Amino acid sequence: MSPTHSPDVVATPGSDSLLPGDGGAARRSRVASVLLVAAGLLGVLVPLTMAAVTGGLSIPHNDAWSYSRIAQTFGSTGGIELLGWNRSALFGQFIVLGPLARWLVAQHLFVALLGVVALAAVYDLVVPSAGRARAALAVLIVAIWPGFGLLTTSFMLDVPAMAAIMVCLAVGRRALRSGSLVLLAVSMAVGFWGFTIREQALAAPVTVLAVAAATAWRSRRRRDWIVVAGACAILLTVVVGFELWRQSFGAGDPPVLAVPESLAKTGGNILVQGYFVLALGAAPAVLLVARPWRWGRGALLAAAAAAVVAVAAVYRYGTESFFVGNYLDPSGPYWAAGHGRPAAIFPTGVWWLIVALACGSGVLLAGILARQLRRVDPVLGTFSALMVLGNLATALTGQNLFDRYWLLLLPPLLAIVLAERTSGSSEPQRRPAAARVAERLPAAAALAGLAVVSLMITAAGLAYDSARWDAAEDLVATGVPAVDVDAGLEWNGYHSAVGMSPPGSWIFPGNRSCYLVSAVPRPGQDAATVSTYRPLLVAGTARLWVYGDDCP
Q1: Which among 102, 159, 306, 321 has most CB atoms closer than 10 A?
Q2: Is residue 72 classed as helix, strand or coil in its secondary structure?
Q3: How far is Cα 508 from Cα 486, in angstroms, rounded to an integer?
C-alpha cells in the first residue's frame, strides 16, 4: 500500500500556543503534560474514586445490568445466556475478560482502563492538525464531556466501543500515511473488535478502507487495489460470520423499526439537538480560537444562521429539554431507570447558563466550520460523515438516540476547531501577556464550568444508583425476596429469573412490585420508610420513599 499525504493543517508555535509567553517547545510540552494529567484525573481517576466511595463499583448501572449479568455468567461458566436487553453486539466486551468477567469490579476497572486508551488515541488523532498542547486540551475536553466519567465507571458499551474506534482510526491513519500493511491489519482487527461490542463501530474500519480506496484510485497502482479489496473481503467475511454466530444464541433484542410521521421534522430535531450537544462539549476549544472580527462573509453568514437556529431551538424545546438527554439532564443522568423524577441537581439559573453556553458556542462553531471544513483530514472527515448519517438513520427508523451517541463526533470536531489559527500574519508576534490572558479567560471559564458539570453528573448518577440499590438491599435483609422489590431497571433486571421478556419490553417475568423504591412521594399513600442521601456525594439532600407491602 502506497503512503498518502494528509491535508491536515501543520501545527505551528502560533497555533499551538495556549498560554501567554514565548510559546517555545519546552513550554508547550509542559502545558500538554499538565492537560493530559488533568484529563486522566477528571475523566477516569476521580470518577473511579467516587464509584469506590459510593459502592458503585460493585453494582450495575443503567442498561449495563444486562451486560454485566451476561458477562458474569460467561466468566463463571463459559456459557453465553442473553437476557432480552442486549440489542448491541456486546460479545467482544466480555469475552476478552475471560474468567475476570465474573466480578463486577473487574468489569468496571476494565472499562476505566479502556477510557485511558480512548483518551490516548484521541491525542494521537488530534496532534497532527493542532499540535501537542492543543491536542492535550482536546483530550481534556473529551474527558470532561458531561457523562464521560460516569461511562468510564460502568459496564456500558460506549467507552469500550469508543476506545476501539479511536484506536482503529489512529492506527489506520498511520497505516495510510506510511503504507504499512502491518498497521492496516492492526487497524482492521481493532475495528472489528469494536464492531463485536457495538455495531456502529464498523464506521471506523470502513472509513480507513474508504480513504485507502480513494488513495488507490489516485495512485492507479494494482498493488494498492489488491490490498484494499483483500481487506474489504476479509472484514466483510468476519463481520457476517460473527453476526451469524451471535444470532444463533437467540433471546436477542432486535430493533422495532417505526418510521416517524414527519421524516423532515424528526431528522431536523435530531441534527439540531445533536449539534448543540457537540457545541456545548466543544465550547472551551471554540472560545479559545474564535476570532469573529477576522472572519469573512461566509463565516459570518454561517454564524448568523446558527444564531437563528439557536433562538428557534430554545423557543421550540425550552431549556429543560434543549438537549437530547439521557445523561445531560437537569435532574441527573438516566433518571428514568428509577421511579419518579428526582429533584433537579442543577438550579434553574445554572441550567440556563449551560444552555446559553451551548448556544453561544454553536454560533461561533458554525463560523469556524465554514472556514475549516475544506482542510479536514480525510479520515476524520469521512468518519464524521458516517457517524452523522448513522445517528440520523437511527432516529429516522424510530430508535432512541441519546446525547452520549454524539460523543464519538467530539474528537474529530475538536481536531477541526483547534486547527484554526488565532493570530493573523500581520499581527505582531508578541503582545502584552495581559491581553493574551484576557483572550483565553472565556475558554478557561468554559473548561472549568464543564468540568464541574461533568463531576456533578457523575456524582449524581453514582449516588442515585447506590441509594436505590441500598434501599432494596435493606428490604432483602429483612427477608423480602429480591424479585419482590422494584427499585428500578438495574435492580429488577439483575435479579430477575430470566431477564426481560418480551425483549425490550421492560417486563421481567416472575418479578413483583410488592415493595417500590421511588424518588418521589406517591399521593394518597403512606411510605413504609423514607431515606435520605446526598445526590452530589458531599452536598445536597435527596429522599427515597419505600412503599409496600402490596402483595399477598
Answers
A1: 159
A2: helix
A3: 11
With a CB cutoff of 8 Å and minimum separation 6, the contacts of 227 are 1, 181, 184, 212, 216
Closest CA to 194 of 215, 166, 153: 166
Distance CA 511, CA 505 (A): 14
For 427-469, give the secondary structure using H, E and C: CCCCCCHHHHHHHHHHHHHHHHHHHHHHHHHHHHHHHHHHHHH
**pLDDT score at 251:** 54
The residue with cell 497532527 is 128
CA 54 to chain centre: 23
Instruction: Give the three cell numbers for residue 105.
Output: 469490579
Provide φ and ψ at 515, rounded to 5°.
Answer: -125, 135
**What amino acid is encoded at 248 in this protein?**
S
Q: Per DSSP, what are the bridge partners of residue 531?
A: 544
Burial pattern 480-508, b for ≥16 Cβ within 10 A else e, equals bebbbbbbbbbbbbbbbeebbbebbeeeb
pLDDT for 428 equals 44
pTM reported for the whole predicted model: 0.94
Q: Which helix (H) or strand (E) holds 529?
A: strand 529-533
What pLDDT score was predicted for residue 454?
97
Residues in the chain where the model's pLDDT stays below 50 = 6-14, 19-22, 425-428
Q: One-letter amino acid identity for 221?
A: R
Q: How far apart are CA 129 and CA 413, in angstroms?
A: 12
Whole-number pLDDT of residue 490: 96
Share of the chain above pLDDT 70, in %: 93
Give the per-residue pLDDT at 538. 84
Sign of CA dihedral 15, 18, 20, 24: negative
Distances (CA, A) of 286 to 137, 372, 460: 12, 12, 28
- 3 state DSSP class of 327: coil
Question: What's the burial of 122, exposed, middle or buried (CB within 10 Å: 0-12/13-18/19+)?
Answer: buried
- For residues 415-439, b (16+ Cβ closer than 10 Å) or e, as one string? bbbbbbbbbeeeeeeeeeeeebeeb
Residue pair 305/297 in contact (Cβ under 8 Å)? The answer is no
User: Amino acid letter at 354?
Assistant: I
pLDDT at 259: 76
- Determine how β-strand 542-547 pairs with β-strand 529-533: antiparallel
> Which three three-digit cell numbers place residue 253?
433484542
Q: Which residues contact 226 (CB under 8 A, 6 or more apart)?
A: none
Neighbours of 80 (CB within 10 A): 17
